[in-house]
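Encode chain A's predicted structure.
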Amino acid sequence: MDATHERRAFPLALMAMATVAAAAGCGSSGSKPASQATHAAPTQPTLTKAVATTHPVAPPQKFTSQKYGFRVTLTKASSEADAIVAWNGRKLQGLDSAAFANFTDPATDRTLAVAAARVAPGMRLAEWRAAMVRATPSICPVSSSVEQTTLGGEPALAWTTKCGDGYNVNKLATLHGKRGFMMLFASPTAKDKAEDRLIFESIRRSFRFTP
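Encoded structure for chain A:
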């Protein structure tokens, strides 16, 4: 997915959410996953309080996609643009597509997008993931490493791509009911990959399917 086009104008402060989590760990077309407290010196609490006052952390807030039946916990400063048309599941059309539920943090240029499509009866998770690999354009070569994980209590597969236009993308595929879900988390290659992973994992753990 051409990650240059994987951005929409709806703010998302994912970096703050990763800090709150504290325990963690592109496909596109032309159209566009902790810190822990330690015993500090007597002066440290004063410094910490000052920093916290200067950089307040926004409280979490749940966002729900009515189109695809899921919710994620982000920060209060976040906003979303839910999908307004159905995704056909055959092509990763770009994160600004009306077929994706999109969440963006303009301060970091990180973007989360989620979509779902009906799948053939009996489809296996590996087959769905393979279909998503085929749906990825050549500008975003897929890594050979695949991780087994979960999303909303369902088995899932996660992998990464690095797009030629300067974005790394954490991807995750799962099956739920009669649909295949695809999650994309795009971040500029200049960002720290460990930070990207921490934020992505925070989002993944907060994900819940809704009726």
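The first strand starts at residue 60 and ends at 65.
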